[in-house]
Amino acid sequence: MKTLVLADHDNKVLKDATLSVVTAAAKLGEVHVLVAGNNCELVADHAAKIAGVGLVLLAEDAAYEHELAENVAPLIVNLMSDRDAFLAPSTSTGKNVAPRVAALLDVMQISDILSVEGPDTFTRPIYAGNAIATVQSSDAKKVITVRGTAFEKAAREGGNAQVEKIGTTGDAGLSSFVSAELSKSERPELTSAKVIVSGGRALQNGENFHALIEPLADKLKAAVGASRAAVDAGYVPNDYQVGQTGKIVAPEVYIAIGISGAIQHLAGMKDSKTIIAINKDEDAPIFQVADIGLVGDLFKIVPELTEKLPG
Questions:
Q1: Is 243 annotated as belonging to a binding site?
Q2: Which domains does the chain have, with CATH numbers?
Q3: Cα–Cα distance for residue pair 204/214, rounded to 1 Å
Q4: 227 among annotated binding-site residues
Q5: Does the annotation flag 136 for ligand binding?
Q6: Annotation-wise, does 242 bind a ligand?
Q7: 204 is in an annotated binding site
Q8: pTM of the shown model
Q9: Which residues form the Electron transfer flavoprotein alpha/beta-subunit N-terminal domain (predicted)?
């Protein structure tokens, strides 16, 4: 069985999400990685070194620079003639491309898998992660998105795959890239961070969020996250959001400050190794999943905690 993995990258750096998908794909058979972009030879070279990768396909075209689904999907469909499954990470790019690939192949998409039980059988979360469904597909071609936190990351070194340049399908003329407003930070990227400090609506406003959460994160060399309520209230940008409709994370330590623990937020972080919650409401749902819970006023606790930490 041959699988095709879509590399998640920015034309310069291969993102960690790809490594987890390679691990999942390896459970199905031979792993081929597609790097579709523009001036992205370095990404292809890095993909070739991933342990377990058998072949890297490099498709370079200005139409692929921003990985628009309307342009990338036809390329993938062309490559699926002699492959059995297409896997993409459950990132914004993967979730954008995979449904269009499934539609063009006229097959069912299996979303957000947690495990590979067999060549046609997988598990995936339902009801915001409160139940796990086992699904079996009878489609000849499988289209799958992979929850990165459910699979170990493949080693970035150890592979020696061939890089093969392939033809492109060009611009489909259905969409165009206009602009992107991306926040820049020296902190770790949210989905790959080992420690995350997240803030919720209880912080009351953006000024408090930045004044309390960011110094603590800096002391811990942590990434900064937020609940949907905090994002919707405008405290921080959308790319900070952790949860079912945000980013799925599983760090070594997750610190939830002023977050009640709504189901949609828990779905995005409950696989964290150690969960620490600070909240004045002792009945907050977050305490049901927390390994360490501290009931109290975050406006007093967080500055004191930050002050006592070295660095």
A1: yes
A2: 2-165 (3.40.50.620), 195-308 (3.40.50.1220)
A3: 15
A4: yes
A5: no
A6: yes
A7: no
A8: 0.85
A9: 3-181
